[in-house]
Design a protein that fits this description.
3-stranded antiparallel sheet, 7-stranded mixed sheet, globular, 40% helix, alpha/beta
Length: 435
Amino acid sequence: MPDRSEVAYFGAGPAPLPTKVLVKGAEAFVNFQNTGLSLAEISHRSETANQILADTKAALTTLLEIPDSHDILFMHGGGSAEFSAVVLNMVAVWVEKRRREAEKDLGQGSAGIIERVRKELKDQLRLDYLVTGSWSLKASQEAANLLEPLGDGFVNVAVDSRKSASGKFDNIPAEDTWTLTPPRTKGGKTSAFVYYCDNETVDGVEFPNFPKCLDRSHTDPSDEVPVVADMSSNFLSRRVDVSKHAVIFGGAQKNIGITDVTLVIVRKDVLATQPPPSFLHAVGVWSPPTILSWPVVAKNNSLYNTMPIFSIWIAGEVMRGLLETHQDRQLAGQEEVANAKAKQIYDALDRYPEVYQIVPDRSVRSRMNICFRVNGGDAGQEKAFLEGAEAQLLQGLKGHRSVGGIRISNYNAVDVDKVRRLITYLEGFARKSEP
């Protein structure tokens, strides 16, 4: 049986955790702080549970420099549940804004408010999606599915990177080619939100920076389009300007902790701009199920139902570990480490182009999920690569089942020594395989 220190795990998720956190977690799972109870047993209504929530929020706030304008929610269901939550909550925000405009124009209690908003909903509601990989594609498909009872055409895919020359998710087209919904001040409809996935885990594509065309901080307030970002697989790996986003969400099982916790950072005005469920139903829109309703979760301090306190505590330990390691540099320090590890891996692959073919364009290579083929996708060679890696306890390297190939996940808990071991193997395999 190998020791934990001998195994280098590069799986895409659930991902490796710092050993120090796991050791503390093992103790807390049996007897938390000498209480005689496991963290998996304590009441989610207890003082201990509330303190864990507060401490984890505080650590995340410090790491990401989250402004007072935003709240932090802990939810269930992973990123996939948020695909639905985003649509249901943000469409509700769009409806409420239109309801308030109609009430201002027609007078409070006017019978014409419902009819006017219902018509605007049919004619003007749009949701913009930047489809740059498998997960943003799934999110856009979920949006279309949820809105199907209203009809077609509500989801605007402003960019689909498969429509490039390659036909694959291997690039992000230039911003001037995106077909975002025009704002109302320019004769358009003003989208309910624009959605992007910051790092595509399956395809190895990452936005190098926040898209410039989405920064509308200096535009007419009526043209403001809330920006929603799925950061599940690069969360806490680099600095983020939270203020430019209405919503950021991510499943914990990549860089933050273990499964069954989803973090949602949401602007407080989004939480406050929600119509009564009866109004949503009257205009033909579903209200968010209670378990996916951000305002309900926020009002109940993420304790509307039984949350996995142990999982939240693990996330907090990971965050506090980052703060302890990088201190005042916070995520700037972790960003340097992540970038340096990714560069070493890409440099090793680039040295052997006849053996290793990196999938994404160089300009959008993910620092977290490094996807490549061996000898042009030769099945025998890729099998030999994986078997050879496993023999050296280099694990979790098989690409996603939908695309195949090899994937190296370079999450925060993958330390530099394990990256060096992997590079040694990459170089040795390549030298044996070169023609």
